[in-house]
Amino acid sequence: MTNPTPPTKLRMAVLGLGRMGLRHAANVAYRTPRAELVAGADAYVPSLEKAKGELPPGVYLTTSYQEVLAMPNVDAVLIATETASHAKLTIEAVKAGKHVLLEKPISIDVDAARPVVEVVKQHPEVDVMVGFFDESYQYAANKAHSGELGKPYLVKSASNDTYDPTGFFVQYAKHSGGIWIDAGIHDIDGARWLLDVANPKNLRNPKKQVSYVYASGAIIRHPGLAEHGDVDSAQAIINFENGTSSNIHASRTSTHGHDIFCEVFGTETKLYINPIPSINKVQIRDQWGVRNETTSSFLDRFKDAFVNEVNEFVGAVLDGKPMPVTVEDAFQASQIAVALTWSQRHNKPVLFDDDGEPILSE
Ligand SMILES: NC(=O)c1ccc[n+]([C@@H]2O[C@H](COP(=O)([O-])OP(=O)(O)OC[C@H]3O[C@@H](n4cnc5c(N)ncnc54)[C@H](O)[C@@H]3O)[C@@H](O)[C@H]2O)c1
C-alpha cells in the first residue's frame, strides 16, 4: 500500500507584527495545519524582538517587507501593518506574485483603494482576500439568506471598544482613518452581507447599492482625538437600494469590556448576535448580583474568527476555490465608511450617484 501524498502547505509571511499581526503570525505558525510560517517583517525593531520570543525559531524576521516580497519560498503574505499602508503593500505584493490575505480595511480613502481593485483584476493568478467574519455571523447570514427570517430589512449593530486610558489608542488613531474606517467597517461589512445588498436581483441599477448615509459623532473620553479629526462615540444610518437599512453605534468608551453585538430584523424573525458579551459560560453570583465577566478586547471576542479566516484563506488558495470575501466587497464597504466619515465631519447626509460613488461635496 502506498502512502497518500501529504497535502501541500502554503508558505506564508506576515507583514506588520504589532497587536494584530503577531496574533496572526502565531495562528499561521501553530493553528493553521495547511500553512507554514516562513517569515515576518516589521519596521519597528521592538515588534521584531517580541515576535522572536513568540514564533518558532526557524521563522525569518526582518525590518524590510520588500525583502520578504522578494523571497521565492513565500507563496502568500498576510498584511497587518497600519491601515494607511495597506493599499501600497497589497499592490506591491500582488505584483510580486504573492497571494494576499489583507487585514481590514483596504485603505483609509477610496482613491487609494481604487488601484488595489484594478491590480487584483489584472492579476487573476493571484488570490486576494480581505478579512472574514466569525462563526456566529456566518450562522446568522445562512439563516438570513435562506429566507428563514422572512424578509430581512434592518441590521442594528454596535462596536463598543474598551475604554483605553493609556494613550495608545489616541496615537493609533493617527493612522487608522477614523472611527468609521477603523471600527465601523466591521458593522458595514456585516450589514452588507446579512442584508445581501449586492445581489443584483434586488437592484434597479446593479452599480448602485447605497441610496444615502448619515453619521454624527462626539468626543466623550479621548480629547486627544480632536487633533486627528476623530471621535470616540458615533452613530450612523445607511439606506441601501434594495430597501433595507443599517443602524450603527461605534464607540471607544466601554468600561465593562469589548461589547460588540448585532440585531438582524426580518419580517418573521429577529436574530441577536452576542447580546451578552460574556468571556465564557460562567455566571458569577456575589454581592453585586448575578453577572458574567466580559471579553476584554477584540482579541478575546474574535480569537477563533482570526484562526478561521486564515484557514479559509489557505484552503481556498490551495484548493483553487473562490475567495470568501473579495476586494470588491472590501472596496464597497470602504466607500460607505468614507462617506460616513465625511458626513460626520460635515454634519450632512451623503447621497450616492448612479455609478455607486458617494457624492462628497459641500
Ligand atoms: N480584524 C480586526 O478585528 C482588527 C482589530 C485590530 C486591528 N485590525 C487591523 O490590523 C491592522 C494593524 O493594527 P494593529 O492594531 O496591529 O496596529 P499596530 O500599530 O499594533 O501594528 C502595526 C505594525 O505594523 C508595523 N508597520 C507599519 N508599517 C510597516 C511597514 N511598511 N513595514 C513593516 N511593518 C510596518 C508597525 O511597526 C507595527 O508594529 C490595522 O489595519 C487594523 O485596522 C483589525
Automatic annotation (TrEMBL):
Residues 146-350 form the Gfo/Idh/MocA-like oxidoreductase C-terminal domain. This is Gfo/Idh/MocA-like oxidoreductase N-terminal domain-containing protein. SUPFAM superfamilies: Glyceraldehyde-3-phosphate dehydrogenase-like, C-terminal domain, NAD(P)-binding Rossmann-fold domains. It comes from Apiotrichum porosum. One of its GO terms (biological process) is NADPH regeneration. Keywords: Oxidoreductase. Residues 10-132 form the Gfo/Idh/MocA-like oxidoreductase N-terminal domain. Pfam families: GFO_IDH_MocA, GFO_IDH_MocA_C. The keyword tRNA-binding does not apply. One of its GO terms (molecular function) is oxidoreductase activity. The keyword Oxidoreductase applies. It comes from the Eukaryota. GO terms for cellular component: cytoplasm.
